[in-house]
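re: the backbone from monday

yeah here it is again, tokenized this time
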């Protein structure tokens, strides 16, 4: 059974600079969630819970998930207060109970919450798969978003992990699930 982690895809991410290929990322995340649900897997929504007064404060408009993402009643939600979705949360216990064959990771922001979550997935002993084209961020002062994404996709594929982190495009993940080359 697969589990997919949807990291911080909340309305508050729309504040600030535009996010790289956000519409495409949303479409690909929806496709991956449909694949996981269709094969009996679970969708886990990671929700950043900000401090009082910030855009991700519990109950604030920015705290809500993007409405374009397809949610289901059986989905699981985990709130977090730090970049790492495992730090101070019950995510590891949820995944241990589910015993996934692989944990797919996607969402926002590539270089902060997604990166921390990929690394922590590995550190907790779960087989991590990153959807290479289903995470996003804004341009950074020193690098354009596409460069950050390309760098992190390479970095994750080179992490020393057992099993190694797999980094695949959404189309390849969908084809793999369908059993097509």
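seq for it, each position gets an aa:
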């Amino acid at each position: 059974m697969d589990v997919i982690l949807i990291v911080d895809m909340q309305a508050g991410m729309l504040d600030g600079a535009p996010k790289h290929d956000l519409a495409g990322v949303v479409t690909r995340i929806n496709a991956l969630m449909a694949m996981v649900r269709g094969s009996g897997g679970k969708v886990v929504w990671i929700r950043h819970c900000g401090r009082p007064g910030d855009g991700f404060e519990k109950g604030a408009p920015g705290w809500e998930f993007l409405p374009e993402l397809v949610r289901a009643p059986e989905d699981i939600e985990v709130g977090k207060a730090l970049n790492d979705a495992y730090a101070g949360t019950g995510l590891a216990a949820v995944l241990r109970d589910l015993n996934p064959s692989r944990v797919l990771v996607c969402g926002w922001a590539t270089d902060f919450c997604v990166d921390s979550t990929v690394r922590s997935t590995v550190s907790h002993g779960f087989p991590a798969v990153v959807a290479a084209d289903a995470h996003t961020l804004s341009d950074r002062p020193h690098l354009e978003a596409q460069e950050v994404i390309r760098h992190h996709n390479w970095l994750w594929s080179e992490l020393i992990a057992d099993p190694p982190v797999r980094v695949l495009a959404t189309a390849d993940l969908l084809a793999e699930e369908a059993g097509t080359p």
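Strands lie at 2-7, 42-48, 76-80, 102-108, 128-136, 166-168. The mean pLDDT is 97.
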